[in-house]
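Below sits the subject:

***
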Amino acid sequence: MKKIMTLALLTFSVSIYASTSSLIESCREVGTQKVITQAEVLGHKVDATDVNECGIDNRPLSIAKYVWFCAKVSGENDIKVITQKPIFGKCF
């Protein structure tokens, strides 16, 4: 019985979790700031409009979701950072 209740709660939690587009939007501010900060550390200037979502891990049974944000910088590879969003929490 305990296993059934746990499975039901997990299924309910997953079903109410954010869609891909709302997950990206909920993490966009944090991800953009992380990219800008990383660019400054590396000696580059990146504008917030240059930052894009470049990957997502939104698997249904995962307890946390991940969104990668990146920006192109001159002469180097993209700057790429990851944000994480727990089921019941804010992106970081």
